[in-house]
Design brief:
Elements lengths: L3 E5 L6 E5 L8 E7 L22 E7 L10 E8 L10 E4 L7 E2 L5 E4 L6 E7 L10 E2 L2 E7 L5 E3 L1 E2 L2 E2 L2 E3 L2 E2 L4 E2 L6 E3 L3 H10 L5 H5 L2 E4 L4 E2 L8 E7 L17 E6 L4 E2 L4 E5 L9 E8 L4 E10 L5 E4 L9 E7 L15 H15 L9 H26 L5 H27 L5
Parallel strand pairs: 5-12, 5-15
Antiparallel strand pairs: 1-2, 3-4, 5-8, 6-7, 6-9, 9-11, 10-16, 13-14, 17-21, 18-19, 19-24, 20-23, 21-22, 22-28, 24-27, 25-26, 25-28, 26-27
Length: 432
């Protein structure tokens, strides 16, 4: 059991757990929610297991990263200005849980991290300590995962392609006060607008004036619940962010939304972004945010193109969940991933086949495909049984070349009947 604080959002739509101590390293953790113990304003228990029935147990599993330093697992990289490309000198790369491993960028913007955990660890690149920050500016701090290889010195890379960490300078004149008593709309400041005119000279400047982020009253808070009082919205070229966009995402502009000192929004912040994708009025778009805690881009919901086709407005209930980097792009399906199941063996397959067959027999119109259905699952069961035998032989050290050959021959013999049965089963789907 872990002790900590459970903070319910002011909307009462979600809660955040803040552990009192750092989570244990290299540990599988299970988060369980007992819906029978949580009552809603409507007097009904929370539907924790998502079966549309009040109550029930919900759970999620994850594993924490290793904190064991690996000799020779070294990582180096460079930190640069998002607009000029110049090296940022004196930025601090803070390694989570290993302050003694922190590094400071040199005159070329380079940092070296020595003997890092492998294969992954988290850092925060803190630009506020830079010594060559332009006058009237400051650099932000960003958290992200780095990857290492035992016994090797590697440069930061994505799928083998090296990249630099880019931080945008924040003009202090563009920082705006946000209220704890009422919602505050924040848009681009003068410095940000000047950068946009340079990046997109073909776009009417009036479009940029309509970009805004609505900070709900008192919603930008840190992990201790302290409310932020200042915010800034900045444009950033998509090729000059802390790490490249994943191949599945494409955007002409990244918008950095910051609230000084805050780590999340207690209430999602509504956004209005420019429609740079050329989507039609009324068409849907997807908003993505970089999740600094998980080190990935998350689909946070949909927006709708305005009637004049110039802007994309987040749909009701959709908004930014935390300060960071955000984009709007063509609508993408938000997949629901089911929790992992335990491995099935051939006995499980037979049980499933029998149970499904018994169920099908209750429906007269389905009787014509029972035989085909059984053939398919019997073939699958034979393959699974043979693979299980081969695995057990291998683990026991008694596997032979002849045994492998015989097993593969059995699978080969089953393959064609299985394919034929599956094809016939598909052709019979009109009976359903």
């Amino acid at each position: 059991m872990l002790s900590g604080r459970l903070v319910v959002s002011s909307t009462e739509r979600f809660a955040t757990f803040f552990p009192d101590q750092p989570l244990p390293a290299s540990t599988a953790l299970v988060v369980a929610v007992d819906g029978d113990l949580i009552m809603g304003r409507d007097g009904l228990a929370l539907d924790a297991d998502g079966d549309n029935v009040p109550g029930g147990m919900g759970s999620a599993e994850f594993r924490t990263l290793s904190l064991t330093r690996v000799p020779g697992a070294n990582v180096f990289g460079f930190v640069r200005d998002s607009y000029s490309g110049a090296p940022i000198v004196g930025a601090t790369v803070r390694v989570d849980a290993f302050p003694q491993a922190n590094a400071v960028t040199d005159a070329t913007g380079r940092f070296d991290l020595i003997d890092m955990p492998s294969p992954a660890f988290f850092v925060h690149v803190d630009g506020s300590t830079a010594t060559n920050t332009p006058a009237g500016m400051m650099y932000p701090s960003v958290g992200k995962p780095f990857h290492s290889v035992p016994g090797q010195t590697t440069q930061l890379n994505m799928m083998g392609v090296p990249f630099d960490v880019f931080l945008p300078p924040m003009a202090m004149g563009d920082v705006q006060a946000i209220s704890a008593a009422q919602d505050t709309q924040v848009g681009f400041g003068d410095f940000g607008l000047a950068q946009l005119s340079s990046l997109f000279p073909e776009i009417d400047p009036a479009v940029w004036e309509r970009v805004e982020v609505t900070y709900p009253a008192g919603s930008a808070v840190d992990d201790q619940g302290n409310v932020a009082t200042q915010a800034i919205v900045m444009p950033v070229p998509p090729t000059r962010i802390p790490a490249p966009l994943p191949p599945t995402l494409d955007a002409r502009l990244v918008i950095s939304v910051q609230a000084m000192g805050a780590t999340n929004f207690d209430v999602p912040a509504r956004v209005v972004f420019p429609n740079l994708e050329g989507l039609a009025p009324g068409e849907k778009a997807s908003f993505f945010s970089f999740n600094h805690d998980a080190g990935r881009w998350d689909n946070i919901g949909l927006g709708t193109v305005s009637a004049d086709g110039l802007m994309i407005e987040s749909d009701p209930g959709v908004g930014i969940l935390a300060p960071g980097w955000h984009i709007a792009t063509r609508q993408q399906v938000k997949l629901k991933v089911s929790p992992p199941c335990r491995e099935l063996d051939y006995k499980d397959v037979l049980k499933l086949a029998k149970a499904a067959g018994d169920c099908i027999k209750k429906f007269d119109k389905m009787s014509a495909i029972i035989a085909l259905y059984t053939n398919v699952f019997n073939s699958l069961a034979q393959i699974q049984q043979k693979m299980t035998t081969l695995r057990d032989d291998y683990n026991a050290g008694r596997i032979t070349k002849e045994g492998v050959k015989a097993g593969l021959e059995t699978i080969k013999l089953i393959k064609d009947p299985l394919a034929d049965a599956y094809k016939a089963w598909g052709n019979s789907s009109h009976l359903i």
